[in-house]
Amino acid sequence: MYNGIREECGVFGIYSKTAAKVANSVFYGLYALQHRGQESCGIVVNDCGVFSYHKGLGLVNEVFDQESLGKLPEGKIAIGHVRYSTTGNLTASNIQPIVVRHVKGPMAIAHNGNLINALQLRREYEMRGAIFHTTSDTEVISYAITEARLTCGSIEQALEKAMDKIRGAYSLVIMSAKKLIAARDPDGFRPLCIGTLPDGSYVAASESCALDSIGAEYLRDVLPGEIVVINENGLTSIKTHCGKKGSLCVFEFVYFARPDSNIGGFSVHQARIKAGRFLAQEHPIDADIVIGVPDSGLDAALGFSLESGIPYGVGFIKNRYVGRTFIQPAQGMRENSVRIKLNVIKKVVEGKRVVLVDDSIVRGTTSGRIVDLIRNAGAKEVHMRISSPPFISPCYFGTDIDSKDKLIACRMTVPEITKHIGADTLGYLSAKNVIRIAQEADTGFCRGCFTGEYPVEVPNEMPKDKFEQKLSE
After folding, report:
1. CATH T-level topology, domain 262-451
2. What residues form DSSP beta bridges with 235?
3. Which of 194, 46, 42 shows the shortest CA–CA distance to 110?
């Protein structure tokens, strides 16, 4: 994926039956979730109610080494987080998990998602004397919980009360002195699942691939609106905010999640195969070879090949030691990254009519550069196929899909985009079929960025990137 889409975070938590080096398990879990956030990461360990943590800017294997992990104590509970910011600047103060020391006891919280009323709530808390140390909406959630904690008998009851106030997308792992809590917003915008280890320990993670990384068995997804509480007595569930089927971001299946994950009981890999099949049905073309843009375009390309009968080929070699191009903060840096990250296998495409499959087009600049790579390698024709619909609206729920003026599909027609990126033809997956790629999953879907219709009322075109600016006004 080379078009500027950024997903915000991955969360991981573990409750061990016995005191152990739980930080190591969280490390491997975060490593498996690295694709969900590459700006920063952190781990907090609970040692008999005493919280110790290590956090830093960078990738998991850059922030943590044998020495830093060794300094974290043994414990029964730990949580971790990998981050890409959608609300909050890239600063050390915004690195999660956030640790709160409160009169009712310590709390650590890690958040995947985006609140749509964060600014409003922050102003309310500040007017009552609250002092914020970050620009992250996660700190707003922590204030909502700690305020409710003053009048509630338990942290889960406080979270239950806080969920009446916070609006938007949030998949949370929360650690108190004696409990690990996992919770999802009532619409279930972001994934969250629960697993078990052979000794009876519990794990919570954004994706099932993180469970696999430590040998945990997938138990189930956390339901939209559910609060799962894990302590020495096992697992209990609070469902007062449940009832909706859910509106999972469909782009989890298109791009965000790892293909070896299962979400809502359905394989991400299989969903992408189906996307490619639908693409071949909707936009057939006479060509010699189908290739995918690594990594999320590969499965869809295979599906296109299977449906069309056009041979599948490996057209790109990816430099695995370069991070995802979207992590670069400036467009110029992203463009440079494309050149060093991908190299075309000339013999595969030379003299051929190529179907090039990718997951999306946002601004069009990097898509054009990828088309140029194929043409410069000698391709006779390049037919671009995209396994998602055109982006026509921003996302308010944790995906960095920008304002309309930066979305190429809001400024150009499909023929104009085709010319702009230098392709011979261009075909997008339809909005109707994008939700069919995982119709077997036990969830509904949000596709607001493709249709402009959202499951909940959203801010009136407030620019998503102006959160910090508004805080200073």
Report:
1. Rossmann fold (3.40.50)
2. 230
3. 42
Cα dihedral sign for 17, 22, 24, 30? positive
- Whether 99 and 152 have beta carbons less than 8 Å apart is answered as no
Q: Identity (one letter) of the amino acid at 159?
A: L
Give 400-432 as a DSSP string: ----GGG-HHHHS-HHHHHHHHT-SEEEEPPHH
Bridge partners (DSSP) of residue 11 are: 81
CA–CA gap between residue 149 and residue 354 (Å, rounded): 59
Helix (H, G, I), strand (E, B) or coil at 107: strand
Q: Cα–Cα distance between 304 and 315 in angstroms, integer?
A: 15
- Say which residues have a Cβ less than 8 Å from residue 363's Cβ, sequence separation at least 6: 3, 4, 331, 406, 407, 408
How does pLDDT run across 31-88, given as a tens digit for each residue? 999 999 999 999 999 999 999 999 999 999 999 999 999 999 999 999 999 998 654 5
Note if the pTM is more than 0.85.
Answer: yes
Tokens of 138: 């996660």
Q: Using CA of residue 410, residue 416, residue 420, residue 425, what is the dihedral sign?
A: positive
Cis omega (within 30 of 0) on the bond before 185? Answer: no
Task: Give the tens place of pLDDT for each residue, 435-463.
Answer: 999 999 999 999 999 999 999 998 775 55
CB atoms within 10 A of CB 258: 19
Tell me whether residue 9 is one of the annotated catalytic residues: yes
For the chain, the distance separating the N- and C-terminal CA atoms, rounded to the nearest angstrom, is 36
Active-site choice (9, 193, 209, 249): 9
Instruction: Determine contact, residues 38/32, Cβ cutoff 8 Å.
Output: no
CB atoms within 10 A of CB 387: 31
Domain ranges within the chain, ordered by starting residue: 9-244, 262-451
d(CA 55, CA 93) in angstroms, rounded, equals 10
CATH architecture assigned to 9-244:
4-Layer Sandwich (3.60)
Residue 41 in tokens: 């990461």
Cβ partners under 8 Å of residue 469, min gap 6: none
Q: Which three-class secondary structure state does DSSP give residue 275?
A: helix
Smallest CA-to-CA distance from 137 within 155, 117, 153 is with: 117
Distance CA 4, CA 93 (A): 25
Exposure on the CB side of residue 37, measured as CA atoms within 13 A: 31
Q: Tens digits of per-residue pLDDT, 80-127?
A: 999 986 545 567 889 999 999 988 899 999 999 999 999 999 999 999
